[in-house]
Amino acid sequence: MTQTPLDRAHIAAEDAGTDAARLAFMGALAEAELHLLLNGEPDDGERIEPRLVEVDEARYALAFDLPERLTAFAGGAATATLSGRRLAALLAAESLGLALNLDEAPSAQLLPPEAIEWLARTLAHAPAEEAAQVEEIGPPGHLPENLLAALDAKLSLTAGLARMAYLAQATYSGGARSHMLAFVDAVPGAEPDLARAVSEALVFSGLDAGQIDVTFLRASQPLAARLARHGLRIDLPEPEPTMLIRDPDAPPRLR
Fold first, then answer.
1. Segments forming the whole domain that contains residue 191
2. What is d(CA 172, CA 77) in angstroms, rounded to the nearest whole number?
């Protein structure tokens, strides 16, 4: 069977044995589409009851990143499909762990309740908003490769939310300096999701103590022209004509 992104992220974490690699796996888990094994079809069509296993006095829900993996494990059981971030929130609320891809998958593992609670808490964190006056714009300085990889992975999921972005160094009134990621012509209402994507890239690259400021501009604003001259342009993916952007917090799809 072809390896999935979760398989590859888990293998990388095992091989590297570093906190950064383990965080990268948790980031991949948050973005994955998972198929949750249920005890049966919901009585009301909405409330789901995961099938649980108990290991060392902790309870785990069973989920798989491919429907065929679930079928191989449990046959034609009732399932719900939802994002990893949504599943983490549901499981953390019940103090449950996650039994992921049990059986023969490379990413098979038990994620204990405390790991799921950490993931849910991290994903629920909203970036702080501050007002600051930009005085100077310069080319971006050195950024760690794992942060650039995390940003690339997160921005690849933002199709249709903004036209482009610029990465640069900004100097603010008062002399403070920081890297800035400026999104140009963001879709109204997409700003919180874009800011959260950058914040999560920092966390899952192991650099949550670092900082990248996020701002939103229209292409007609003078700051956008300055960023075009000095910043690194990042073209964001365009949605396919029939593409529907799934809300990661949407209710699970039942089968």
1. 134-235
2. 57
